[in-house]
Amino acid sequence: MTITLVNPDGLPKIDAYHQVSIATGSRLVSVAGQVSWDAEMRTVGAGDLAAQVEQSYLNVATALAGAGASFADVVKLTVYVVDWTPDKMAAFGEGVTRAAAKLGGAVPAPPGTLIGVAALSSPDHLVEVEATAVLG
After folding, report:
1. pLDDT computed for residue 2 by the predictor
2. DSSP 57-92
3. Residue from 95, 132, 102 nearest 16 by CA
């Protein structure tokens, strides 16, 4: 595997992600921010954060597959959530867990950043997820 995820001593151990990823591959894959559109650009889960997180993660997985990658190759996730407040963490986590179940694997846990934003490109979208992966 080209990615090693670690939580160095002296930093908090957070269940949702690892603090550091070490990549030893030679190809960088950048995935544009994915929202909860289906293939026909219809919003999936209007008004439902968990459903939109699930679809956004599934779209990231589809984009990664198009490059010959998977979540196992991801070194960094950046997530943008409209009007973020900590009480939305349960719905966010539910969406990630549902996506992982559909993908047949564990919840992706590379280093990540969650950023609260005022709006995204469409008023229907509550979340956008972008990824960086490294392939050997």
Report:
1. 76
2. HHHHHHHHHHTT--GGGEEEEEEEEET--GGGHHHH
3. 95
Model-wide pTM > 0.70? yes
Rounded distance, CA 6 to CA 37, Å?
Answer: 32
Tokens of 67: 């490059």
For residue 46, the 8-state DSSP code is T
Strand partners, 80: 115, 128
Rounded Cα distance between 24 and 136, Å, is 7
Q: Confirm if 54 and 45 have CB atoms less than 8 A apart.
A: yes
Exposed e or buried b for every residue in 2-34, given b needs 16+ CB within 10 A?
A: bbebeeeeeeeeeeebbeebebebeeebebebb
Specify the DSSP class assigned to residue 22: E
Q: Is the pLDDT of residue 129 over 70?
A: yes
Query: Does the structure show a pLDDT above 70 at 132?
Result: yes
pLDDT of residue 23: 85
Please determine, for residue 26, whether its predicted confidence score (pLDDT) is greater than 90: no
Tokens of residue 83, six digits: 């009007």
